[in-house]
Amino acid sequence: MACTVEKLEWQAPLQVINYPDPRLRAPNARIGVFDDSLRELAKQMFEVMYQDDGVGLAAPQVGVNVRLMVFNETATPGSPDETVLVNPVIIEKGRATDVDVEGCLSFPKIYADVERATKIEVQYQDLDGTKQQMQLRDFVARVFQHEYDHLQGVLYHDRMKAAELEKVRPELVALEEAFIAAHPDVAIQRVPPPAAAKAKGFGSVAKR
User: Fold this and answer.
1) Cα angle at 25 between 19 and 28, to 5 degrees?
2) First and final CA of the chain: distance in angstroms?
3) pLDDT score of 1
4) Annotated catalytic residue within 73, 82, 102, 147
5) pLDDT digits (tens, 9 = 90+) for 131-154
6) What is d(CA 99, CA 110) in angstroms, rounded to the nearest whole number?
7) Cα torsion at 22, 23, 24, 25 (round to 10°)?
8) 40 an active-site residue?
9) What mean pLDDT do residues 164-172 have?
C-alpha cells in the first residue's frame, strides 16, 4: 500500500519532466492533507498543462510523487470542465475498448495508438477531501486512464502493441540518450529491445 503524506513538498515554478526521468516510475504517495498548498499545486499544474496545450497532467509529471491529477477535456483555462482528482482509484472498468492516438507531455511530439477501456467508474477525493464518484466515457475516460497510469508508474508506451512501439522506438531512444548525456550517473528504465519485449512482455525492467 502506498504511504500517505501529511505535508506537500514541491517548488514553484513547476516544469514538466521528460521520459526517462526516474521520477516518472517512482511510487506515488497518497495525499492526506487538504490545504492551501494542495490547492496551489493543482492550480499550478493546470497552468503548466495549458502552457503545453495539454488536456491532462499527473503530479509525477512535474516531479511531485503524489497521487494527484488534473484534466480538462476542453483545454480551456478556467472552464467548468477543470477537474482535480486526489487519490483516485478505478472501481469498475467496462469490457469495451477502442484504439486511438495518444500523446504525452512527458514525451514531446511522440504520438501512437493505445488501446483503452471506453467506460470506467472512478472514486477520488476533491480538494476539500470529500469522497466523490463519477463515471467517465470515451475521450474523458481515455484521458483519465492515461493520467492514472502515471500514478501507477506506468507510461503510455508500456501499453502499446509491439508493432506500434517499434514505430516510436527511435524517438524513445533519442530521449533516453539525451537524458543519459545530461545525467550520466542516474539509472533509468529503458525501453526493452525488440527481443526482450517479445520474451518478457512490456514493462520489463531494463537498466542502461
Assistant:
1) 130
2) 28
3) 61
4) 147
5) 999 999 999 999 999 999 999 999
6) 16
7) 60
8) no
9) 97
